[in-house]
Write a structure and sequence with these properties.
By secondary structure, the protein is α/β, with parallel strands linked by helices. The chain contains 14 helices and eleven strands. Helices cover about 45% and strands about 15% of the residues. It has two domains: about 200 residues, Class I glutamine amidotransferase (GATase) domain (Rossmann fold, 3-Layer(aba) Sandwich), CATH 3.40.50; about 100 residues, Homeodomain-like (Arc Repressor Mutant, subunit A). It has a seven-stranded mixed beta sheet, with helices on both faces. The chain has a two-stranded antiparallel sheet with strand order 3-4. Strands 8-9 form a two-stranded parallel sheet. A hairpin with a 4-residue loop joins β3 and β4.
């Protein structure tokens, strides 16, 4: 199986090296089991070498893309710095990726590499993952692509993407299992000390709300939610505050924030709970009451929905106090 790893301008070295190392190591694991190497892995680009990040690293290219007539998997690493500039600087890769895909190649983006993937048009109408901090920018640049909040891995008919930063390893292990076996993927996970079968980046997400819109009345409603989340808030009350009917309010709120009103309230409350669990000595029930919940089961379910783990697990992982 032939794997082509694009080395983009403004590429993140921590996303360029892992796919090469993983699939080359998979060949080593296969050799130890008495099998032949399965993967042929190459860095591809326009020139014989490419500077990564701010010129901190120089990556040697194995094959220029004009000499790659066929490949089975294209990997697009994360982009560094200003994303829109990075996409423009790598625009010349788009036609090659499209051509290879039409010839049968699958395509996988890692973290913010999803922006370059989306620029090809191959992700239009499909689900896509990227770093949680870039959701709003991604939606504004590629409204035809369905970015999935919190998802670490997306798999849509030969188009793959991963969530933020080190979650790229989860997609790489997912692909390794798909192309070989679960046993080999588990071996690789143990070798690289990767948390296997993790599919949610919710525990890493910091929810700041979508404020990059021009609906002043919805901004006021967001401010109320964020300052009074600990109180009992109803959609009707919020709608009456900005003097519109409930249906209009809900439509405008969703259009502006990409969340329903209820989802927004829940996410603000969960974010507040996460901060308390990280820094305070309050027990779980006290935190629950402080953020506006009085039902333990409901709080636990909502917290796990957005954080990916339970409140007690989150505290055990991130608490700065004993």
């Amino acid at each position: 199986m032939h794997i082509s790893i694009i080395v983009p301008e403004q590429g993140v070295i921590e996303a360029i090296s892992p796919p090469y190392r993983l699939f080359k190591s998979a060949n080593d694991f296969l050799a130890m089991q008495g099998h032949s190497p399965f993967f042929e892995v190459e860095f591809v680009g326009h020139n014989s070498s490419v500077d990564a990040q701010d010129g901190e690293y120089n990556v040697k290219i194995h094959q220029t893309i004009d000499k790659v007539a066929h490949t089975d998997l294209i990997i697009i690493p994360a982009l560094y710095g200003d994303i829109q500039t990075a996409v423009r600087r790598n625009h010349s890769y788009l036609e090659w990726v499209i051509t290879m895909h039409h010839k049968g190649a699958e395509v996988a983006s890692l973290c913010t590499g999803a922006f370059l993937l989306a620029a090809t048009g191959l992700a239009d109408g499909r689900e896509c993952s990227t770093h949680w901090a870039y959701y709003d920018l991604f939606r504004s640049m590629y409204p035809e692509v369905q970015v999935i909040d919190g998802r670490i891995i997306s798999d849509s008919k030969g188009i793959y993407s991963s969530g933020g930063a080190n979650s790229l390893w989860n997609l790489l292990l997912y692909l390794l299992e798909k192309y070989t076996s679960r046993d080999l993927a588990i071996t690789a996970a143990k070798f690289f000390a990767i948390d296997f079968d993790r599919f949610d980046q919710g525990m890493f997400t910091i929810f700041n709300g979508q404020k990059n819109h021009s609906d002043e009345e919805i901004l006021k409603a967001q401010e109320i939610i964020e300052s009074e989340f600990h109180k009992k808030l109803s959609v009707d009350e919020l709608a009456s505050y900005i003097a519109v009917n409930r249906r209009t309010f809900e439509r405008r709120f969703k259009n502006a924030t990409n969340n329903t009103v209820v989802q927004y309230i829940q996410r603000v409350r969960v974010e507040a709970a996460k901060r308390q669990l990280e820094a305070s000595r309050k027990n779980i029930s006290e935190v629950m009451y402080d953020v506006g919940y009085n039902d333990t089961k409901a709080f636990r379910e909502v917290f796990k929905k957005y954080a990916g783990i339970t409140p007690i697990d989150y505290r055990n992982k991130y608490a700065s106090t004993g």
